Give the backbone structure.
Amino acid sequence: MLTTLLIAYPFFAAILVMLAGSTNAKRLALLSSLVQFGLTIWAWVNFQNNADVQFAMDEVWMPSFGIHFSVGMDGISMLMVLLTNLLMPLIILSSFKIEYSRPAVFYALVLVMQSALVGVFVAQDAFLYYIFWELALIPIYFICLLWGGKDRIRITFKFFIYTIAGSLLMLVAFIYLYFQVPSPSNFSHEALSTLHLDTHIQGYIFWALFIAFAIKMPVFPFHTWQPDTYTEAPSTGTMLLSGIMLKMGVYSVLRWLLPLAPLGVAEYGKLAIILSIVGIVYGSWIAISQKDIKRLFAYSSFAHVGLISAGIFSMTLQGLQGSMVQMLSHGINVVGLFFVVQIMEQRLKTREIGEMGGIINKAPVFATLFLIVLLGSVALPLTNGFVGEFMLLAGVYQFSPWYGAVAGLTIILGAVYMLKSYQWAVLGEAKEGFEFPDLYASEKIVLVVIAALVIVLGVYPQPILNLTEPSIKHLLETLTNPINLSLR
Amino acid sequence: MNAIIALSLLGIFTLFTGIFNWRKAMLPIVVIGLAGVFVLNGMDYFTTPSWYADYTHMVIFDRYAVVFSAALIMITAMLFFLCKQYYQKEDNNISDIYGLILFTLVGGMLMASFSNFAMLFLGIEILSIPLYILAGTKRLEVTSNEASIKYFLMGSFSTGFLLFGMALVYGAAHTFTLDGIRQYTDAHAGDLPTIFVAGIMLMLVGMLFKVSGAPFHFWAPDVYSGAPTLITTFMATVVKTAAFAALYRLLFYTFGSAKPIWFDALWGVAALTMIIGNFSALYQHGVKRMLAYSSISNAGYLLIGVIAMNTHSANSIFYYTLVYSLASLVSFGVLMLVTQDNGGDDSYTAFKGLARNNPALAGLMTLAMLSLAGIPPLAGFFGKYYIFINAMENGYIYIVLIAVANSLVGIYYYFKVIVAMFAKDTAPTKIAVQPAYLFALVVAAALLFVLGIFPDWVSGLMN
């Protein structure tokens, strides 16, 4: 019931925001997202730390098609819901200094997206999951289309077509699996993951699902929509895309790809790791040479997500647990980074790193908070990025030391482009007549919260690890059964 | 059966209202009359007719017929709400137009309920002849006249094929009743005589003309784009639904056991129709023409439902035609307003900036486009889904993959409309819409939503 509330509440809040009109839209949206966050915390407090699906609800939705409205949260889902509902108030608050035209529509779309995202993370029925997956795409498409940058029409369109293409493949795979379920056919996660199809078929299933999720994450070579879309989207949209929506892909690998096609993963998982690692190096390499800071962070996000995906496909406890921690950390850091970009762009009317410099002299508070977020992203020890990346690398290393070594480049290369960007943009002498007002109150709140989370999670990540460990262990147990040969 | 009689009387009565010049009362009479017909039709749903007892083997109102007829009546009634604003200038002949639309509906209902080839033929003719006239009701426009004559020539041509096919089938089976022919087909399933096979094929060609399946689709774009938009809407919704009801009824009740004969051909036609329809729609500059090609591609998806032919097929075809009709009604409805407002310009540019001054219309159009593109949770998605699982159930995975690839192409051109509407550059004027007009569009759009979330409400009506 609580899970359903978490889905339904933002949706009704969206309607309310729409009705309330433009003047109070942002405040109302913030308020409702805070309430949602409160509900989530309450759910977390009441969450039993075991592998069971909790707060579950299962109602028949379309009886003749075997489709259920089945939702519930295990540790993995709980973490994702936490991530979504934690970031949402921050994202909304971070947009307070931007004057979006037609704010009522804008914030309503943001809240509808929140509803769909929660739905994706808690659905236990493949069809329901698919509906939410697609539903999440509509608001972000319109957010990018209506409030995006100059080249938005072409780029958002590419983004849309790309993702839809992937999800249609996924749909075909789901329908195929649906017909393999002994009568009466249904879409429940449990039924689909206990089919025991042969390796050949699971190979097809693997690819259909993998491509869908790889586009969303994105994994090399399905990433070409990503830098453009991140750059052209309005900054709130970029945060939604990189902070939360990207995690839909990662989460879906854990929830659907691994259990539904374990033999496919055993067969092609290695290839997935290689692609992910190629993405890490490639993304980092391109990030180094970027002049536009938003684009730089877009490529850095692409590189970081490559490591997460490599960690998952290593199929080790460290790798999977690391991916959980890193999803949360990456969400927090990337929202922080894109918020920094937004602040600089608003004040300087440019995103070119070469035209910045000397900000530290005018805005020391901003510079300090930026540094903390940046260090978190570079994965300095005692920041949140370190915990996740370390575990992920350990996981990949267990899979193969060589892969681990190459994937480890992410830390070095990440440090290169991140610190370089900081050096050029923030340090140095200010030019003559250079103005950079320091943070306003709302901006300060967002950045302080993010910086605090960076440090707190870096020092004490244990609650997160505890939250997901039973579910991850359970997942690994079910997987190692058919594929233990390939792991040795 | 009573519904057809009542509807014919209503049509004749409408013509009389024209004579007595009861302009004001005309629309209420027609709408209330249609509501009555809807109820009469619905009453047949609960009686189970036996195959032999009904109307000397001519028509049979089984659930299939009743359900399809209900959809036809409902969509027609909604179209009448659009009539008044659309035919403002042709006010003198309005009763003729109303009457003709009602007669077309009679034909459509016969096409859903025939149990004899004679009635199939009559149904098609009763449907077509008023349509030839309706296509030319914008008398002063060249394109309307062109559409009318083209439709007439092509329609008669295709009916020729159909008749020839019927004659050949009769030659082999010595009967016109569906039941008799089915017995013949079942009895000779392995070794059907060539004359019978040729008959099936010729009938199929005739029917494929009617549903605009490639390569017999070439009349459709010209006729659709030339005819008055309201009549185009009628063709894309009611006429298309009736044609598919007839095609499926014909194949299922008579030639079901001869499936190996027509399966490959129809499989190819389905694939070709989707591909030609979609890729032609990509390159259109006018939205009306784009919708015409989209109508062709949708016929392709529907043909997948026809070839699947299992226990769910009739339901899936019904669901798909219903939601496609609703989405078409909305999209053509908005198109009509935009075109009139822009002095006859129906290109994508005419839609630019629509969201700014007419947010309601833009919202409706967006819903319709999302539904046509098959984006959940709108009903169009579920329609496609239903058709696809239907085919997958039989293991026809390749045609489903082709269809999936095609729906991706479809998204491209449907979204072009959305993108144009939300473009910032130009701001057209506020378009005046009559309340009745808006009401019909809103109801249709709301149904797209509701049926998408609760497809079960209508998807099992024939069980």
Summary: Chain B touches chain A at residues 370, 375-377, 381, 385, 388-389, 392-393, 397, 400-401, 404, 407-408, 411-412, 415, 419, 422-423, 454-456, 459-460 (CB under 8 Å).
